Amino acid sequence: MTDIAVVDYGMGNLRSVSKALEHVAPTASIVVTSDPSVVQKASRVVVPGQGAMPNCMRELTGHGLKDAVLEAAKNKPFLGICLGLQMLFDESEEGNVKGLGVLPGKVRHFSHDAMINSERNKLKVPHMGWNQVHQTMQHSLWNGIANDARFYFVHSYYVETVNSEITAAYTLYPTPFTCAIAKDNIFAVQFHPEKSQIAGLTLLHNFTKWEPHSSR
Amino acid sequence: MGLAKRIIPCLDVNNGRVVKGVNFISLRDAGDPVEIARRYDEQGADELVFLDITASSDNRDLILHIVEEVAAQVFIPLTVGGGVRKVDDVRRLLNAGADKVSVNTSAVLNPQLVADAASHYGSQCIVVAIDAKQVMDDKHNSPRWEVFTHGGRNATGLDAIEWAKKMQTLGAGEILLTSMDRDGTRHGFDLALTHAISDAIDLPVIASGGVGCLDHLVEGILQGHADAVLAASIFHYGQHTIQEAKQYLAKHGIEVRL
After folding, report:
1. How far is B46 from chain A (nearest CA, A)?
2. Which of A8, A11, A14, A15 to mutate to test the interface with B (most CBs of B within 10 A)?
3. Count of CB atoms within 10 A of residue B57's CB?
4. What is the pLDDT of residue B26?
5. What is chain B's alpha carbon radius of gyration, rounded to the nearest angstrom?
6. Average pLDDT over residues B177-206
7. Which CATH superfamily is domain A4-209 in?
8. Mean pLDDT to the nearest integer, B225-244
């Protein structure tokens, strides 16, 4: 049986995600798959994603994976990364496309006018590099990770949540945006744990051990 | 507090070995790429750049194996460039474990490659490398920077600032800017060039070419407005560790990942 399914809907490089999972859970069976039945049978599901939201939603539907992902988001440990976070929300400004609507909120582009920091320097878009993740809730996935630890980001869009109770962490660029959300069996992050060295590997390791119903 | 400035060691790979040239010419062996990548990761490198400078097409696939091996052990972003000619080359490198692919000569010969690769795989993984050299503009009798290709051998007539703007429009996610005048000289970045390009575009700019000491890294960020600084020889030959470089930047008020 597959312990962890990494959902492959044809968007970018999933090798780093699966390699990082193999590194933190050497005995687990980890499969990169585009087969909905494999996703359904897996005990844990990881949905990565790179590129643009419209392509992402189209490919997800085209590969017949949309229902399997929706189902996983309801009932098993679910980790969304980057677009895997953004797709959970109602809609995205990127191509004005609908998301999965699992969580209320919208995906927005960083406003060019607002991209000035306190030293009056221009901030670049995409937001690319190592930024601090400020934890706003206790969660098993933060175990062993210092508050304000740095993770690797690369994105031009961010999620604007309706319910701030699901925000698990925020990051400043230059104003605060939600960079991690947690609700029941779902944990999803804007940054790339698979590229965030020790902090990222710790988060992935925590995910492989996470029992959502016993503790949050 | 916010986004950290990045320090990126660059590994020029020739026939499977890391080498370092001076002004793009004479090469010197610096070691095994996988071993060096691991060392830089342990020292706190923010990303790694591999540039494949292998001339012979027989040895072209070596870089794929190196990327695969590095990606299985090192969990920070990897950029790979050199000899990328078509979208399929981008795909093969991403599948091997590269997070970003850098294009240079091919972007000049076929700018559509940048647009196609970005629309297929996302801007976040397309880095356009620009090799720029200062030239005299006869018409205005003033200096400007021109884009060169083929490892600095061929002039293109393209203005580097205009070219960077065009690459942004076509979908590049980042610019890797090398001063051909400074590369390998250890005299420091071309700060005027770095500043001009970084301020002209919204994309992050990696400054490259000429780092000989830690002060050059500080200058590249504070005066050149670079988002990331790339260096090779100061790290390869043990002059400084990445950690020393970061401590030095932090001492100068620059935000880094320590």
Report:
1. 8
2. A15
3. 8
4. 60
5. 17
6. 96
7. Class I glutamine amidotransferase (GATase) domain (3.40.50.880)
8. 93
Nearest to B202 among A50, A125, A155 (CB): A125
> Which CATH number is correct for B6-251, 3.40.50.1820, 3.40.1080.10, 3.20.20.10, 3.20.20.70?
3.20.20.70
Share of chain A above pLDDT 70, in %: 96
Is pLDDT at B25 greater than 60 in this prediction?
Answer: no
Asked if A131's CB is within 8 angstroms of B3's CB, the reply is yes
Residue with tokens 């069996």: A185
Angle formed by the axes of helices A15-24 and B62-71, nearest 10°: 40
pTM of the model: 0.94
In chain A, the residue whose alpha carbon lies closest to the alpha carbon of B227 is: A124
Q: How many CB pairs under 8 A join A and B?
A: 110
Q: How far apart are CA B241 and CA B245, in angstroms?
A: 6
Output the 3-class SS for A200-214. Answer: HHHHHHHHHHCCCCC
| CA-wise closest residue to A110 among A51, A168, A154, A47 | A154
Contacts of A49 in chain B (CB under 8 A): none
Res A211: pLDDT: 94
d(CA B190, CA A51): 33
pLDDT in tens, A48-100: 988 888 888 999 999 999 999 999 999 999 999 999 999 999 999 998 999 99
Q: Select which of B89, B131, B181, B183 is catalytic.
A: B131
B203 closest CA partner among A114, A124, A131, A173:
A124
User: pLDDT tens digits for B79-131?
Assistant: 999 989 999 999 899 989 999 999 999 999 999 999 999 988 889 999 999 99
Q: Quick one: pLDDT at residue A216?
A: 47
CB contact under 8 A, A112 and B71: no
How confident is the model at residue A214, as a pLDDT?
53
Report angle CA B79, B82, B83 to the nearest 5 degrees.
Answer: 135
Sequence-ordered list of residues with C-beta below 8 angstroms from that of A42, at least 6 positions apart, any chain: A1, A2, A3, A4, A5, A31, A72, A76
Higher pLDDT, B161 or A120: B161
Instruction: Name the interface residues of B facing A (CB cutoff 8 Å).
Output: 1-6, 41, 46, 71-72, 75-77, 94-99, 119-125, 173-174, 199, 202-205, 225, 227-228, 257
Domain-wise residue ranges, chain B: 6-251
Say if residue B39's pLDDT is above 60: yes
